[in-house]
């Protein structure tokens, strides 16, 4: 028990260092998360970030990536079963799951998505196929965060699901050029065929790529609209965090539209000033939906 008393703070600090080391991927309003919840957010992030690195790190074969993820899944199995983890990430994660009675199914869903990525065959015939993926790669994150704040009802979870899928699809549009160059396509085949584009490789050079991206923006906008009431259905700092995330997503959509959807040519980014303004707007007023 004494060993655990000393090991647990170090484990959480380890997770914090991982999160801070990838701060550009952290939610734009993460400083709005209550201080008492930040260690648990760091633990969840470190679990996801490390698995993501296993799935996506260059220089590894698909078999090596899948082996690392299988070992990560075994670590999770043992931690959930109550065995004392030797890995600091799982020590912090085990404590977080226990302290907040978090559902474990979303953690396993995330691993399913990382394993899909690790196989290196990332393409989707239909939007429903793509949604199969985001239900495992994005929606579990929202479910875990809601549970941390004490929200477990299906109504809020559904709103969160739409927001999380929208945010991930938006991120895919921002990263479309790099993803396509690396053999990953997060735009359904049924969509790009509508624009006379016959293969994923053609998206990079097609004159219709901008129109295709704008078409994807319309779907993202619908999903954001579906989930836009979530910030006003939660309390405390989570309300402001979600307002900030929603505001940031809408700003990014406007940027993509302003560049006629040409995310293949240049990656749209939020400036530091825009990020600060988003947090301020979240604190001061409701997001206009």
The geometry reads as globular
Which second-level CATH architecture of the largest domain applies?
A: Orthogonal Bundle
> Which CATH C-level class of the largest domain is it?
Mainly Alpha
Instruction: Specify the CATH homologous superfamily of the largest domain.
Output: Farnesyl Diphosphate Synthase
CATH topology of the largest domain: Farnesyl Diphosphate Synthase
- How far the N terminus sits from the C terminus, by CA atoms, comes to 51 Å
Q: Using only CA atoms, what is the Rg?
A: 19 Å
Textual characterization of the structure:
There is one protein chain. The chain is mainly alpha-helical and 289 residues long. It folds into 2 domains: 1-121, Farnesyl Diphosphate Synthase; 122-289, Farnesyl Diphosphate Synthase, CATH 1.10.600.10. It has helices at residues 2-21, 38-56, 62-80, 88-100, 105-118, 127-137, 139-148, 154-174, 176-181, 189-193, 200-203, 209-227, 236-258, 272-284. The longest helix has 23 residues, at 236-258. The radius of gyration is 19 Å and the shape is globular. The protein starts with a helix and ends in a 5-residue tail after the last helix. 37% of the residues are buried.
List strands and helices in order, with pairings.
Layout lengths: L1 H20 L16 H19 L5 H19 L7 H13 L4 H14 L8 H11 L1 H10 L5 H21 L1 H6 L7 H5 L6 H4 L5 H19 L8 H23 L13 H13 L5
């Amino acid at each position: 028990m004494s060993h655990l008393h000393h090991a647990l703070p170090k484990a959480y600090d380890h997770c914090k260092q991982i999160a801070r080391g990838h701060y550009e991927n952290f939610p734009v309003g993460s400083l709005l998360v209550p201080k008492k919840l930040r260690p648990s957010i760091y633990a969840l992030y470190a679990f996801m970030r490390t698995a993501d690195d296993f799935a996506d790190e260059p220089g590894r074969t698909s078999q090596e990536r899948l082996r690392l993820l299988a070992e990560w899944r075994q670590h999770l199995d043992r931690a959930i079963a109550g065995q004392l983890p030797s890995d600091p990430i799982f020590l912090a994660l085990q404590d977080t799951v226990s302290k907040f009675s978090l559902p474990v199914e979303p953690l396993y869903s995330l691993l399913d998505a990382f394993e899909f990525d690790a196989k290196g065959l990332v393409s989707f015939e239909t939007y429903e196929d793509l949604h199969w993926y985001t239900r495992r790669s994005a929606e579990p994150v929202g479910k875990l965060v809601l549970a941390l704040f004490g929200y477990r009802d299906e109504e809020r979870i559904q709103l969160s699901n739409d927001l999380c899928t929208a945010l991930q699809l938006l991120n895919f549009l921002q990263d479309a050029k790099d993803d396509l160059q690396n053999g990953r396509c997060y735009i359904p085949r049924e969509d790009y065929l509508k624009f006379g584009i016959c293969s994923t490789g053609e998206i990079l050079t097609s004159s219709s790529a901008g129109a295709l991206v704008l078409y994807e923006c319309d779907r993202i906008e619908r999903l954001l609209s579906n989930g836009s009431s979530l910030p006003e259905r939660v309390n405390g700092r989570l309300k402001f965090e979600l307002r900030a995330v929603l505001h940031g997503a809408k700003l990014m959509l406007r940027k993509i539209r302003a560049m006629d959807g040409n995310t293949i040519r240049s990656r749209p980014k939020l400036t530091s000033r825009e990020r600060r303004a988003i947090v301020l707007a979240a604190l001061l007023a409701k997001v206009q939906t």
